[in-house]
Amino acid sequence: MAIDKGNGAPGGGAGASPASGGLYSDQHLRVSDAEREAVSGRLAEHFAAGRLDRAEFDDRVGRAMSAKTRADLRGLFAGLSETGAPAVPELPRGGGGTPGGGPRGPGSPIEFRLDAASGVPTYLQLVQQVEHALRLGYLKPGDQLPKVRDVVASLAINPNTVLKAYRELETKGLTAGRPGQGTFIQATLSQVALPELAGLRKSLLGWLTTAGAAGLDQDGIVALFTSALRDFHERRGDTGDRRGAASGETEGVA
Amino acid sequence: MTALTTPARPEEDAGLRPVPWRRMAWVTWRQHRAALAGVAALLGALAVYLWLTGLQIHHAYATACHPASSLACNINFAGRYAISVNILRVLLQAVPALVGAFAGAPVLARELETGTFRFAWTQGFGRWRWTLAKLVLLSVVVAAAAAVFSVLFSWYLQPFSAAGYSIPFATDVFDLREVAFAGWTLAAFAIGALAGMLIRRTVPAIGATLAVYAGLALATALWLRQHYLTPLLTTKLNLPASAWIINQWYTRDGKFAFPARGSQIINALQQYSCNSSQLSPPQCLTQHGYTWWASYQPGSRFWPFQWIEGGWLLALSVLLIAATLWLVRRRAT
Amino acid sequence: MNMNMNMNMNMNMNMNMNMNMNIIETSGLGKRYGSTWALRECSLAVPAGHVAALIGPNGAGKTTLLNLAVGLAAPTAGGVTVLGGWPAGSLAALDGIAFVAQDTPLYRNLSVADMLHLTRNLNRRFDQASAEARLAELGIPPKRKAGKLSGGQQAQLALTLALARRPRLLVLDEPMAMLDPIARHDFMATVLTAAADDGVSVVLSSHVLAELERVADYLIMMSRGRVQVAGEVDELLASHRVLTGPAGEADRYAERPVVHVRRGGAQAHLLVRASADDPVPPGWEAHPVGLEELALAYLREPGAAALPGPARGRTLPLETGQPSEVTQ
Questions:
Q1: Looking at residue C117, which CATH number applies to its domain?
Q2: Which residues of C touch B124 (CB under 8 A)?
Q3: Cis-peptide into B67, omega within 30 deg
Q4: Which of A185, A209, A220, A221 has the most CB atoms less than 10 A away?
Q5: Looking at the structure, do residues C126 and C108 belong to the same domain, yes or no?
Q6: Which residues, at least 6 apart from B134, have a Cβ–Cβ distance to it below 8 Å?
Q7: Is residue C50 situated within a structural domain?
Q8: Over the stretch A171-228, which tens digit does the pLDDT of each residue have?
Q9: Looking at the structure, do residues C181 and C210 belong to the same domain, yes or no?
């Protein structure tokens, strides 16, 4: 994805942030779930980067999740300011921790790309790119997705495909359309306990090592994983889109 | 639901009015201005020539030809200008054909040849209305230009007619005169348009137009024109010069003897030694008991004949254009 | 949850009656030239609001079908109506359809500005301002003669003129045959943006399959003058699978609606008409099918067909088999 270095979407998001001049003027304001999650996400990035150890990370995330006002969130980033931005982050966007940092221009923070040869249906690629951007922080709640006609104009794809992708995102609860304005992110992906995520990753790496030692090459691993994932979903009675069940893995890689 | 919305259109289809006709004026002009310029150039150049030499002719006539049979008239007027006038009369025969072919044939042939009809005939104006507007506009312009030109030609010719060197019904003059000239130009245009639609290639259509026109013009001059009104019969020997004698023959004792051409009259003239006498063959033979008959059209019928010729040419043109329109409406590919 | 579909549209967002109409509807349509039938027994119902791709080999009858739809040719058999019931070639049809023929015919001696003026004079609606803006954006100088433009510029000019008429249906006959890849991309981007902005339905014919999957959401495949496949792309892809399994067992599935078989010594791939819910025989694997693979399979099997059922409507349920027309 191309990183849009512009400013965030105008008029969006819960709790528009004060400019850096009003650092402490809003400390009494209540914070939303979205903002708590956003802060947790940024803390996770710092943890992944190694600036916080496990104990500090758990502690700060715990405080973030129980914060009620902006004052409570103040200080969670003590010692973590990377770009010289003020200690209290400008919620919900701006400040340190944004990949590719810097001001964002009007329009959407992200830009879509299309891999025509990947075998993944176009609309699904768009959905995945939005989810990926959400995970990585390119997109935050309140950001606007690119306008349908802009996507069509730059990628030369069918507008119904874009609409289908945006509908899918709405169905998943990630976005909401505002009549006359566009489609906006309204939630983050359930960052299922980020500490757990790190743990899962570690055990996955372990399994991969074992699989590699057993003689499976990359494609074999993918095939094994894909079929196991399918069985798992079938057993769970997952009624989601079959083709998309593996979140983008193509079925039956032969 | 996968489809996009179709926004409401401000105009509803129920009251669909066609695009106004006047829009075709610019379209016709822009697409055919080369042909129109060519026609203008041709007629214009000829008009300039007619104007300049016509002034000279009128001047010479005014100074030398009173009376018309004087020697001075013969030398200064007829001798100087007769040849060029005669050449001109022949050359001008080609003008309606050229104008008609080069203005008429490309209208449809070029569209069909280059494939641009796939653009023009899918526009909102509609295929046959487009054709009708173009053909009507162009034919009116072309016929009007021809009419103006022929008025100039008549003016140019007038001294010759007055001096008796040209009769109004002369074959190569009649069709250059006012109404007939416009009619022939119009007919050539209509032939060209139809040829363009049938043949679908510009150059062959032009060729076909010229050929058909030539055939029609010859047929009219040699045969059809005489019969517009029933010719009058006379035995008077001194018909006025303006009369157009169509047929002459001799009778004897009320029975047909021989025509005024051919081997029989030659024998008769020899028999009666008419060749050596001062008398003209009719006068000579009359003295020997033959009656000379002629069927003719009097000079007074010149204008009725012009209108008749113009009339049927107009009817033919309308018919050909209607046929072209019918073809356009019926089929394209 | 807000299910408002009309995102990012500038124009008035009312779902009017036109949504349910068929943009092109034919019944038993046929066209004969001399003694050859260029098109036979063509019965289609292409819904509005889609980008429909008409594909097939040369000589399949694509141009004939398009010519009939825009009124350039008259049918020998059957009939065709457009824009929800107007006869093809009628004034209403001409008004609402913009056609760009093969090799983009333009008047070579007219300048670009003259072409604009000409098109404006010949139509009821013409958006001069947007056309001029678009041409300026593309860098096409208004004074240059149309014949002197490059192939890509000519195609873009023809498209600009067509879209400036604000049609409801845009018909393109192999518009990109002469274009290089960048020009093709720009051309399709323009077409699709018009579809996104104004809801223009598009029917375009092509024999380049690769780009269709991104672009088309309705597919019509023709072969030898007959329609082989017609339906929404999503439904077509959802109703076909490739079954991969032992070559020896391939013949066992004679009764299933098999479209195309490809065999190796031990392994065979069957392209069948089946949905994701259909059980996969034991020992076989099922894969989803891409549009290009599907199209190629049908092109290789002229006897096979995937046509909508007799009910004419906006949503065309695909039937899982017309066995008599399907070969193994």
A1: 3.40.50.300
A2: 91, 94-95, 122-125, 165
A3: yes
A4: A185
A5: yes
A6: B24, B27, B28, B31, B32, B107
A7: yes
A8: 888 888 888 888 888 877 765 556 777 788 889 999 999 999 988 888 999 988 888 8
A9: yes
